[in-house]
Amino acid sequence: MYGPPPGAASVAQNHVQQGLSSMPVQNVGALGHVSNIPISQNHVHPGMTITPIPVQTSGAAQPPGIGAALVSQNHIQSGMPPISSQSSAGSIGPVPVAKYLIQPGMPASSMQNSGQSHPAVSASVPVIQNNIQSAMPPTSQQKSGQFQPSTAGPATQNHIQSGIVPNPGSQYPQVLPPTAQNHNHQGMPPVSVQNAAPNNSGLPSASQNHIRSEIGNSPSLQNPGSQNTPGQPHMQNHVQSVMPPMPTASAAAPGAQIPKRYPAYPQQPPISGPVGTSQTYPSFPQPHQQQFQQPGMQMQPQLGQDGGFYGGPGMSVGQGSQYPRQVSTTPQVGMAQPNYPQYGQQPAQYGHGPAPPAYTQPSAQQGQKRLDPDQMPSAIGVMQEDQQTRGGIFRTDQKGLLPPLVTTKFQIEDFGNASPRFVRSTMYSVPAQLDMLKQTAIPFALVINPFESPAKDEQAVPCVDLGPMGPVRCIRCKAYMSPLMQFIDGGRRFQCLLCKAITEVPPEYFQHLDHTGQRVDKWERPELWRGTYEYIATAEYCRNNVLPKEPAFVFVIDVSYNNVKSGLINLLCSQMKNLIESLPSHTPVGFITYNSKVHFYNIDPALGQPQMVIVPDVADMFMPLLKGFLVPRAEAIDAVESLMEQIPALFGDTKETEAVLGPAVVAGMEALKASNRVGKLLVFHSSLPTSDIAPGKLKNREADRKLLGTDKEKTVLVPQSTYYNTLGQDCVGAGVSVDLYLFNNSYIDVATIGQVARLTGGSVNKYTYFQADIDGPRVIGDIILHLSRHIGFDSVMRVRTSTGVRPTDFYGHYYMANTTDVELAAIDSQKGLAVEIKHDASITDEDGVYIQVALLYTTIYGQRRLRIHNLALNTCMQMADLYRNCELDTIINFLAKQSISRSVETTPQDLKEGIVKRCAQMLATYRKHCANPSMPGQLILPECLKLLPLYVNCVLRSDAVAGTSEITPDDRSWLMYTVMTMGVPSTVHYFYPQLVPIAGPSGSVDDPVPVRCSRDKLSDDSAFILENGIYIFMWIGAAVYPDWIQDIFGVANLGQINVEAITELPDHVNSDQSLRLRAFIRSLRSERQRHMRLTIVRQRDKMELVMNRFLVEDRGSDGQPSYVDFLCHMHKEIRSLLNQ
Ligand SMILES: [Zn+2]
How far is the CA of 72 from the centre of ligand 1 (A)? Predict the structure, then answer.
């Protein structure tokens, strides 16, 4: 089809590059004839000459016709010096490679400056650059040891800003100045000395991987039961001053608290009553045998509730059908046969009573009552209240202090516990008794975002450099020096709160203690008083005991027909300079393109112009370039510009539709390995890999789309081949993370190819039906956001816990070769992992639960570091303490990830029933053991969990957890990957989107405040933004103020807005309203770290149907219950549990 040009074949057959001549010959047969040589017409483009390479045959060269080592270097012909062969050439496989000089139409003299290094110009991302740089230790300040203990606050600030720990170990004074104030800030509870039983769970496996083994060396079990002085109990439990006291089953203490009490809605306004911290919703439907004679879910008819603001009957219960009738302007697709699982089966694990009636049963009876959704617990209300009561400074000096909600704007002052931005727990009082935890069914889990960006004006994470000594660690569990270590014996030894072992203080780390038992240098050493800090790691923490080089970024671009046609190639090439300027100037960059072959580019500035090297044997990929592939960004800029001009010309008229994804990823990995660097591959891919000649061939499973939502859905959600998993593991082994950018127009099997991103800590980004003119800004915006993040490379994470609990299950994008070390080829500020913590048995130490998260990683500047997060939680003997100290947003994040993980193992119905039952159990246990005695028909929700029914319903109807055939399998898989890496702030808005009014009857809304996420809030004369972190919809009512249309869109009326073409608000309109709205959208995108596409939805357009899916308080078009329906159902589940 694309025959070789004259002369090419002979070149390809003959030459053997000098440096490769001594290599062993392999793969001879398959490549021994001309037709395999990749010199195709389509590589030759007008204005470009591809120069065949002169043959340089060394003694070991294979004769023509065998084609054993067909690599040539044509730069000799072009007057450039030959690439020096090095001993590393021996690692390159003898595969035929034809190498061509790309000679663009421009004269060589115009390229003369290509060898010059250009200063790093990164005006486009100054903030990010600054952030990254601020994380680097300013070494010039390493001696700034004048910290004044008595001025801990301001001095702390300075100290942190200097970013480095002062005082090298040799300078400890002999004098012991008292640090009287300091112990107040101590984040450490006292040590109660016990025989420290060996913590089996904390024992790291003897891994062969050096990096892994360094983060968790085999413990030496010394001093397990050593005698030592307990410290003074400095910790006060301040939780109770924050959370009101809560009645318990044994000691109900009403009166201390005036909670909201929800009346028999909707007749009466809310009244207050002394019912503990819970909320009571008294008039929920009664069981039929109760005195209220309201069978099942029946409600009394409520008059006078129709119409009004909500413009319709809204929610009602009991219409003689499976679901409450809902009147809506929206077509109710599939309403007659809602697909929702039959709730109310016999609880499998929580009870022994009779099975409650199914969800379908009780509603088909008499009477109904209008339920006013505004009487239900409101997410918006909870967020606003938390902002008012918990906003401002959050100081982490107390064990087990419940943090503000993620939606609340607050500032962290780190005094011993990690910021909740880094580590959030589902609970801050952990039941000591395993039985109690099981009874409540509340998961104990952490959501860890180790690199989450600090809020504005928050302190940067300090960095500690202990020189050759390296971090000081517990002798047994290998935990790092932290506020969780208690110094004893005059400062000569310290006891670890995690495992109780006692460790000798290294002489160079010794310091005296003051009269409170604190080291006198405590406030000069972040590791002694901060929750989060970093260590500079020594060589023993590095691959092969060698300090790393800077990680590299390789752009791997599919140049087949689809990407050319869509305009992606032109877009990427025209923007490449901007993109790589998001990177530090020393960061090496490299470029690979691929279709049915893989092309490497030599961008060595010394060459004058880039060269292409083609590897045709995609089944046996290797790195053909000895040098010049990876070049520091600033030095490469001219060559990159030149290359980016040539690539569109090279492939602009391609007819190749094949793109060999697997070999392209292997190529990138091999390129990084060859240079002894770790790094990231950004792979821009367009089609299902179907090539017969390349490994990783996949078949099209799209016909199985209809299986989504059925018991067989897992057949399209699990990988169809293990190739991409194996590839991912290989990449992790090489420290290579893969980000996929998918530009598919048809099925691409995200479930299978996405595995390579999942296992390598990468991301899957999907731009289906990409058109450069419409989607270009979004793609470029996303890539810049990704490149600009704080990224840790070649990472290993270890979560250590105190005795009695241990991390068991991990959720996120990572790879684990053993049960303790989470390998993350890369992790960035937008990626979180959820970790379930389980009790080994009951916790015997009632002192607290202590957690240390250690992340060993390489910075983008090539520095090996350890980032340490410490967290101290309370333990509790009273169930009420647990319910008072839950973190619902974290629970939801965890449950969603666990559900997604299980969705490839179980059926959708079992999954949903499991979640519903678990939540009913959480609430029923509270009702049974913690709430005041009250009438059985009341729904009583613990304050911390009062949104649980709302949020669980949102999870159960989300496309990530329960996407049905309304979306494609690729979309479902993509959302599953996306949610699996979300931190808590992201899942809050993904599951409960923000609905924000932007225009009302009198025009623009100046200070937009979110409202409940229901179409009831939409009205003809208003406009709204609906945003979930993935999409932004702008809904415009049919009767919206015409001037507003003019002010925003620059057209006279709604009909003139070209909704299909607009993905950004027009920037030629410069009214105040437009500027404000555009700024608002910008801030949303920046907050979510995603350049969310903007979709304009006019009232009654068909896009309204799509948008309605995200109005999560309403009934779904696929039969998903509304919030009110679900709350009623949940109440019934609770009642049936209580009656057992
Ligand atoms: Zn320890």
Answer: 57
